Amino acid sequence: MNKEYGFATKQIHGGHTKNLPGALTSPIYQSSTFVFDSAQQGAKRFAGEEDGFIYTRLGNPTEMELEEKLAGLDNAEAGVVTASGMGAISSTMHTFLKAGDHMIASKVVYGCTHSLFDEGLRRYDVDVTFVDTTDTAAIEANIKENTRLIYIETPANPTLDISDIGAIAKIAKAHDCLFVVDNTFCTPYIQRPIDLGADLVVYSATKYLNGHGDVVAGAVTGRKELIDQIHMVGMKDMTGSIISPFDAFLVSRGLKTLDIRMEKHVQNAKKVVAFLDGHPKISKVYYPGLESFKGHEVAKRQMNLPGAMISFELKDGRAAGEKLMDAVELLTLAVSLGDAETLIEHPASMTHATYSPEALQKAGISEGLVRLSIGLEDAKDLINDLDQALAQL
Ligand SMILES: C/C=C(/N=C/c1c(COP(=O)(O)O)cnc(C)c1O)C(=O)O
To answer: Is the ipTM of this complex over 0.95?
Structure first.
C-alpha cells in the first residue's frame, strides 16, 4: 500500500488483494489447508524456498490481508493476527522470553495480562517486576542485567495511566530490551507507538479495531524480523492461538470505519466527561483529556485524541457503584470495550478480579472505581441515563 495514502484510504484499501475475479471484497478463505501442485512444491514451501500457503495455522490469505492492513495503519513493517488479545500477548511473550529472563511491566494492566505475567510466566521461571511506568526513572531503576523486555499499556486499563512511549523507548534501546506497547485503548487512529520508538504493538482486536462486539481477536505489529518470529515460534509452536478466517474477515470489515467510529466515540466521551466531572456524587474522574488528569500533558503529546474510555469513583464507594450499575437502563452492564454499545463495569470485581487486594491497592484500582466504554449512541441519551441512575444513589 502506497505510504503516501491517508489513514482513511489505508483502512479501506490496505491489504486488499486486488487480483480477484471481479469481486469488490475479498473472499473468505475458510480453509484449514492448501493444496500443493507437486511433492516438490510442498517440500519447497515447507523449506521456505517457495512462497505460498501451506496450512492455516502457518498463514491464510484472509488473515494476511488483515495483517497487512493493520501493519499499514501502524506504520509497521508487518503484523500477525491471533484468536484473542491474550493470544497476541502470550504468543509474543513466549517467543521472546525464556527461563532466567526478567521483564518490567506496568503495574496497571488488564487483569488477565497481569495474571499471565504474575503467574503464567513465573511457572517458566520468567521474573516480572511491576512498576509505575508513568515514572520513567522507576523503569530505569528496575532494569537488571537479565531484563529482556519492557511492557506497558498507555492509557492503562482501567485507571487510564499515561506512560511516555518516547522516553521509555530510549531506555529500552539503551538497555537492549524489547519494548512492547498494548495500544488497545487507542488504536492506530489515536496513537502509533512504533512512530514513537516501540518495537512491538499488541492489540485486543476484540475491541475498537473490530468495533462491533461480535469477534474475539488479537494482533501484533512491528518489524518484520520480530513478527516472523512470532508467526513461526509463538503462534506455530507455543500457543497456536490463530484467528479463524471468518473472524479475520469481520475485523477487516470493521477496520474500514475505524476513523469515523473513533471520532464519534471520543466526541461522546468528551460530553459524558463534562457531565461527570464535578458531579456532586462523584469524587474523581479519570480521563486523559481532562487538564486536571495526571498524564494529560504526555497524553496530549502522544495521542491525537484523548480516547473514549472513562473511569470514575463515587463518593460512597463500591456500594454506590453497584447500585449505579444496577440502575442504568441504556448503558450495558458488561465487560469488554470499544463496541458501538456503551458498556459499564466494575474492574475490582470483574476485569481485574485476578488482582490480589495488595496488587489492586498498588495499582490504584479502588473498590469504588467504575469503568465506562463510551459507545456510538446519542450522547444526550447516555448522559440522561447516567443522570437518572446517579439520582437514585
Ligand atoms: C473482557 C476483556 C477486557 N480487556 C481485554 C484486554 C486484552 C485481552 O484481550 P482479549 O479479551 O483476549 O481479546 C488485552 N489488552 C487490553 C488492554 C485489554 O483490555 C476488558 O477490559 O473488558
So the answer is: yes
